[in-house]
Every structure is written in C-alpha cells, then in structure tokens.
Amino acid sequence: MRRPTIAAGAVAVALLAFLVAGCGGGKTVGAVPDTVVGTLATTPSPDASLPALTLKGDATAGKQVFASGGCGGCHTLKDSAATGNVGPNLDSTKPAFELVVTRVSLGKSPMPAFSKAKGGQLEDQQIADVAQYVSTVAGH
Ligand code: HEC
C-alpha cells in the first residue's frame, strides 16, 4: 500500500507546485505534470501487483519450487517432508492459493519476498506453481 500513498503525495506536491506557479507569476517550476504520469497508477487491482494470481499453477512443478526455494527450512509441510518451524506449519494453517501467492510474492518479515519484481528468485509462474502445490497438499 505504499506506492499509492507516494503517488498521491506526488500528485499533491505537483498540484501545489502548479497552484504556486499560477499565483507566483510565470516562474518555471520543476514538477511538471509529466513527472506524475508514470507513477499515477490507477487504483491497482490485487492482480496488477501480484501477476501470479492470474496464472494457473502446476502442483507438480510447485513441489520442486517448494523444495529448491528453501520453504522447508522455515515451514512444516508433510507432503514435502519439510519440518521447519520458523514460519507457520502449513499443514495446520492450510493456506489458500491466494494467500500463498501473496506471501511468497511479497514476503512478510522474516519471510523474504520471492518475486523477482521484489528482488527475489522466483518467476511469477513458479509462484503460481508453489501456491497451487501448497494449497493442494497442505493438511494431507
Ligand atoms: C526465512 C524463513 C521463511 C522462508 C524461507 C519461507 N517462509 Fe513462509 N513464512 C515465514 C514466516 C515467519 C511466516 C509468517 C509471517 C507472518 O504472518 O507474520 C510465513 C508465512 C507464510 C505463509 C502464510 C501462512 C499462513 O497461513 O499465514 C505461507 C503460505 C508461506 N509462508 C509459504 C512459504 C513458501 C511457499 C515458501 C518458499 C517459497 C516460504 N514460505 C519460505 C517464514 C519463511
């Protein structure tokens, strides 16, 4: 939720600069509207920031992602023979696809963000895959 706030702030600043320029009489102001256009994301749908939500995951591929991604170091998941206890036991919480995509994409300290867009190591498709896997096998 930080970006929209920043964008709104930028708009406010630009608007203010515009108003000041209007009253001040002809001084060139740095904050031209062009500066704002790029950051002015229209109210983003959840899908816009989490592309993996729009993809169909493959649970078999996701099992590999779970193993190679190091998820088991922090999470317990019986299907993957994972016994980590830093994060929640996924067999107990049985997270839905959407929650796995969200956590894996964005992280939640101390869990790191895995999305490449966030500096992580997983492609959107891999995130969809691991989410499909976890949401399917958790609790079984
Ligand atoms: C460094 C340890 C660590 C690693 C690695 C890690 N997680 Fe997590 N994970 C956590 C912690 C801690 C939380 C709890 C965050 C919170 O809600 O405060 C969490 C939360 C979650 C949740 C939400 C669980 C719930 O029911 O609230 C899911 C789903 C999840 N992780 C999946 C994964 C997957 C899949 C991977 C591998 C791609 C992974 N995690 C890697 C530590 C980790």
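^ heme C complex. The chain has seven helices and two strands. The pocket of heme C is lined by residues 66, 69-71, 73-75, 86-88, 90, 93, 95, 99-100, 103-104, 108, 110-111, 114, 130, 134 (CB under 6 Å).
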